[in-house]
Amino acid sequence: MDILLSAANAALLLAHGIRRDAEVGLLLLGPPGPPRLVRLVGFRLRSYQPDIRANAALIRRALVEPSRIERESTPGVFSSIVTFGEALDRLGPPFVSLREGGKDIRTADLPADATFVLSDNQEFPPEETRLLSERGALVIGLGPLSLHTEHAIAIVHNELDRRGA
Ligand SMILES: C[S@@+](CC[C@H](N)C(=O)[O-])C[C@H]1O[C@@H](n2cnc3c(N)ncnc32)[C@H](O)[C@@H]1O
């Protein structure tokens, strides 16, 4: 949960605000009751702070009533029971799979409004790799070293910020 919430902060927070155009999907595959998707939607979030413990409370509240039908537990925080493939389809194409050894982000064309897919502290299992490649995901790399998920997200944001500027 620490890894996921640090990644969510990297995806959503600026020094003095929230990236209103960013959305985070956290797919929770551990017990109890997996798989659960929690979406944090930047433009709807009201009480989102850098404080990991406060954000853990938002996630805990989102997980209270498991349902296949997505519900908003607090403004901007949505949850539902969905598999990895269903989560991809909810977040929507085009997909960019971030992976060591992928095409260098510095020279790659990046699609607009992409869903960037990262793993946690483990590699993507073969089934998830298959679901990504079935959906035409580009495989993009960020350099020669294995980075923490949150740092990988910061690099992607920086690249997109510079291209958009
Ligand atoms: C800590 S890494 C996990 C994979 C790691 N190789 C391991 O053995 O545990 C977390 C995630 O950040 C992204 N990532 C980390 N370094 C990367 C790099 N150099 N290029 C692209 N993505 C990277 C990938 O999505 C990766 O799954």
Main attributes of the structure:
single chain, 165 residues, alpha/beta, Alpha/beta knot, 2 domains, globular, binds S-adenosylmethionine
Layout of strands and helices, then pairs:
Elements: H1 2-12, E1 13-14, E2 17-18, E3 23-28, E4 36-41, H2 52-62, E5 71-74, E6 77-81, H3 84-91, E7 95-104, E8 115-117, H4 126-134, E9 138-141, H5 149-164
Parallel strand pairs: 7-8, 7-9
Antiparallel strand pairs: 1-2, 3-4, 4-6, 5-6
Helix pairs in contact: 1-5
Bound molecules: S-adenosylmethionine (SAM).
S-adenosylmethionine binds at residues 98-100, 102, 118-119, 121-123, 141-143, 145-149, 152.
Identify the overall geometry. globular
CATH architecture call of the largest domain: 3-Layer(aba) Sandwich
Supply the number of helical segments: 5
In oligomeric terms, what are we looking at?
A: single chain
